[in-house]
Structure formats: structure tokens, C-alpha cells
């Protein structure tokens, strides 16, 4: 009888272990599900546990920081678009420079793989003039330049880094943080959106 009692208790212990493990896994699953919904807790850490607002003022300051960071992200994207246009203009000027005693620009254009040349005649008041119509292929890649490409790579790295910081703030699922990022995006686009030619995510 004692042996049967002990085996019965062992069976109950096994059931207790299995029920404990199943309850533990279900609680962790519930915690994960709860983390994937929006919440309004002001004591939501941002980037580190030490950056946890414990008052309404600290929470408002964190939201203002996110707004400013998002505006900076928009400024960086606008600055990059402006720089890309400047670099493209410099590349075009470098390509079509004509020096005294060198070959005419018509001959340069005829050998330029990025330009398509057509001979045309313009007539005004009986006076005809021969002109060149040049069509530039925008799909052609610019050559690698030490004065341009490292700066472009550094700027891209900063833009991506700031973008990931904003993404981590949104992933906290805090409503205030999320609305701050959206507000900063609106404000930044309102200020410098017309200067940006590149989409930003």
C-alpha cells in the first residue's frame, strides 16, 4: 500500500510539473502579446533602463526629445538630397569643361557614353544656326570619387542610425513616443520637405 501511495504521489508531482511548465509558458506568451499592444504607461524605458521617466515632466521631456530627433532626421534627409544635387552638378561641370587649345565640345559629346547628341537647325527671322541637343541619361552611375563617396557613406550611416533610434522608440508601443515621432515627422516635412528628393522610412 505504501508503494502504491508513493507512486500515486509521484504521478501527482509529474502532473504538477507539467501544469507548472504549461502555466509558465502561457504566462510568457501572454506577456509577449501584451507587449505588442499600445500602452500609455509613462514609466516606459527609452533605449536604456536608466532612461525611464518617473514623472509627467520627465515623460514630456522624453517626448520632446523624440520630436527634435525626428526633425533632425528629416533635416539630414533634406541635406542629403541637396548634396546629391550639388555632387551631380559638380560631376557634370567636370565632364563638360572646355580648355583653350583642346578639342571642341561637339567632339567630346560625341564620345560621351552618358549623352545623346542630335544635330538640329534653328531658324529665326531667316537666320539659321546649327545647334547641339544633348540628352543626359540619368540612369548612368557617377564615377567613384574620394571627395564625394566617403562623405555620402558617412551621411547615409548617420541617417540610418537616427532612423533606427526612432524605430526603437516606436517599438516600445508607447502611445506618447509614437505620436512624438509622427509629430516630428510632420514638423520636419513642413519645414524642409520641399528640399528632399529621397523617400525616408
Question: Mean of residue pLDDT?
Answer: 76
N-end to C-end Cα span:
72 Å
Task: Give the topology string: H per helix, E per strand.
Answer: HHHEEHH
Approximate shape:
elongated
Q: Poorly predicted ranges (pLDDT <50, ≥5 residues)?
A: none
How many β strands by DSSP? 2
The SS-based structural class is mainly alpha
Strand order of the largest sheet: 1-2
- Fraction of residues in helix: 55-70%
Summed up, the helix count is 5
Strand content: 5-15%
Q: In angstroms, what is the radius of gyration?
A: 32 Å
Main beta sheet strand tally, sense and closure:
2 strands, antiparallel
Membrane topology: Multi-pass membrane protein
Subcellular location: Membrane
Keywords: Copper, Copper transport, Ion transport, Membrane, Transmembrane, Transmembrane helix, Transport
Organism: Trichoderma arundinaceum
Amino acid at each position: 500500500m505504501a508503494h502504491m501511495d508513493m507512486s500515486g504521489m509521484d504521478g501527482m508531482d509529474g502532473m504538477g510539473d507539467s501544469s507548472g511548465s504549461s502555466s509558465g509558458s502561457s504566462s510568457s506568451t501572454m506577456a509577449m502579446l501584451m507587449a505588442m499592444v499600445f500602452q500609455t504607461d509613462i514609466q516606459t524605458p527609452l533605449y536604456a533602463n536608466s532612461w525611464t521617466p518617473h514623472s509627467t515632466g520627465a515623460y514630456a521631456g522624453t517626448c520632446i526629445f523624440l520630436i527634435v530627433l525626428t526633425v533632425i532626421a528629416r533635416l539630414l534627409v533634406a541635406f542629403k538630397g541637396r548634396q546629391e544635387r550639388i555632387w551631380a552638378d559638380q560631376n557634370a561641370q567636370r565632364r563638360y569643361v572646355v580648355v583653350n587649345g583642346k578639342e571642341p565640345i561637339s567632339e567630346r559629346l560625341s564620345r560621351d557614353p552618358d549623352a545623346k547628341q542630335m544635330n538640329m537647325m534653328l531658324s529665326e527671322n531667316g537666320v539659321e544656326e546649327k545647334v547641339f541637343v544633348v540628352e543626359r541619361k540619368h540612369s548612368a552611375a557617377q564615377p567613384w570619387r574620394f571627395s564625394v563617396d566617403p562623405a555620402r557613406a558617412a551621411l547615409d550611416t548617420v541617417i540610418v542610425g537616427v532612423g533606427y533610434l526612432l524605430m526603437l522608440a516606436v517599438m516600445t508601443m508607447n502611445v506618447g513616443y509614437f505620436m512624438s515621432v509622427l509629430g516630428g515627422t510632420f514638423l520636419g516635412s513642413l519645414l524642409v520637405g520641399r528640399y528632399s528628393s529621397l523617400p525616408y522610412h
